[in-house]
Amino acid sequence: MTKRRSVQKKKASRSNRSIPPPILAVVGRSKSGKTTVLEGLIRALTEKGYAVGTIKDAKGGFQLDLEGKDSAKHYRAGACSVLIVSSEQKEIAFFSHLEEAPSISELCERFFPDADVVLLEGFKKLSVPKIETSRGEPLSCRGDENLVAVVGQTSDVPRDVPCFGFSDTSGLVELVERTLQLGG
Q1: What sign does the dihedral 5-182-22-59 (CA atoms) show?
Q2: DSSP letter string, 54-113
């Protein structure tokens, strides 16, 4: 079976799912390697045929469109939501004014109904399985019962939590598959 066929087979089984996809957060201090770990996990899980969604916690806010572009003008004029569609690039971007931030499960239900797994960057206070990254600093999730692994170097790792190097993506993927019970 080719890779494309196995992905198509997984997509067919996902469309019948009525439960939200499993969630895992990659957390850590600024510049600790969260994005590096996420990129590796996304690539490796995608290569294995999983549909991966991601949600990034942008604590300082973010800018989706450049000032002066039509979609920014629509938004600033008061549109409640703006959807940008690029048929050439086969991409969309959506932004909206919200009364309050939706929960992670609401976001997963709305935006990732076909995902096999949703990976979060940040959100360390959520009660979901977590991988913490560290480049020598103390862990912020040391006492968290949801901490399933540490990636990087620190002397602060609890005894019962496995520690991986930044280059051990395959070991980390195995742990993620086991922890989230992916693949059946």
Answers
A1: negative
A2: EEE--TT----S-TTSHHHHHHHHT-SEEEEEETTTTEEEEEE--SSPPPHHHHHHHH-T
Name residues whose C-beta falls within 8 Å of residue 80's C-beta, 6 or more positions apart in sequence. 96, 97
Q: Please give the span between the terminal C-alpha atoms of the chain, in angstroms, as a whole number.
A: 18
- Give 67-104 pLDDT, tens digit per residue: 777 877 887 787 777 888 888 888 887 878 788 888 99
145 vs 155: which has the higher pLDDT: 145
3-state DSSP call for residue 40? helix
pTM of the model: 0.82
Per-residue pLDDT band at 158 (split at 50, 70, 90) = confident
The answer to whether 117 and 50 have CB atoms below 8 angstroms apart is yes
- Length of the chain measured in residues: 184
Structural domains of the chain sorted by starting position, each given as residue range(s) with its CATH number in brackets: 10-62+100-180 (3.40.50.300)
- From CA 138, how far away is CA 106, in angstroms rounded? 32
